[in-house]
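FIELD: query
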Amino acid sequence: MKYLGTVKKEKGQVVMPDTFQEVEEGRVFEAVEIGGDILLLAGPLEPERWGRIEELAQESIKKHRATLEALAR
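FIELD: result
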């Protein structure tokens, strides 16, 4: 895993940090919002996998909420 930095939402657009430029051009990501948290996943994904990813991500976010909030500061 590699931390790429803070993503901002400005005027309805998601603005990625400069380190995201290291990701290959044309790569497609799926954006998923779970409980107010946004995840970017390499796409495309089939519906069954979507469901499982959402389930696991939601579980992980709940379990690690305090740590995630501390990291966001």
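FIELD: remark
The CA atoms of residues 29 and 48 lie 17 Å apart.
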